[in-house]
Design brief:
Layout (H helix, E strand, L loop, with lengths): L10 H30 L7 H7 L9 H14 L3 E5 L5 H13 L3 E6 L2 H13 L6 E5 L2 H4 L7 E6 L6 H8 L3 E10 L6 H8 L5 E6 L5 E6 L1
Parallel strand pairs: 1-2, 1-4, 2-3, 4-5
Antiparallel strand pairs: 5-7, 6-7
Helix pairs in contact: 1-4, 3-4
GO molecular function: O-methyltransferase activity
InterPro entries: SAM-dependent_MTases_sf (IPR029063), SAM_O-MeTrfase (IPR002935)
Protein name: Class I SAM-dependent methyltransferase
Length: 221
Amino acid sequence: MTAAPAGLDDPRVAAVLDEIARTAEKSDREVMERAYATAADWPQPPTAQEAAELCAQAALPVHPQVGTFLYQLVRSLRPALVVEFGTSFGASTIYAAAALRDNRHGRIIGSELHPGKAARAHDHLARAGLDAWTEIRIGDAREQLADLPGSIDLLLLDGWKELYLPVLKVLEPALRAGTLIVSDNLPMLPPEFTDHVRTAGNGYLSQQLPLGDGVELSLRL
């Protein structure tokens, strides 16, 4: 008899997700307030690299509603390749990788600009028992995700918001008809990005979903 899928109730998965959530609850607000205060005196807005350094201790996990949605999508779509921009401490990666494990199929390739965050994500994935389904590439996502082993079935955008559109444009050649793009933190997204995925003729069908603080779900046509 085949064992039932472990799901999100797997004790190892649940424990690591809870640990990340408690870390975020304890320190994310303080880290982000300090980061904003530091950057406020700069003559120019911080670059992605500078922002990564300022926010290196912030977990910034996806809302559990968004994480559960990712798990549901992966279980349903049975993707061969999931790609993630903005791994951070690995919470969203864990939700997707748990579904890949339960599907017994596919892999997720994530990207994280800050090496320290990538190391923490690796540790979290290993302790959740999901590292066999994952790969985290360290560096600028526009470079690290430019070479992929196949077409993208599901894309999660959850990194530096000003890079959503540049990253998406790098990845567009790897999108197939039917690829889904989940873009988190809708209120923070630049209008250039939302205009791109909502404008007729650009190859997407897109709508807002009331999950977490808002998600843009886009279908590649």
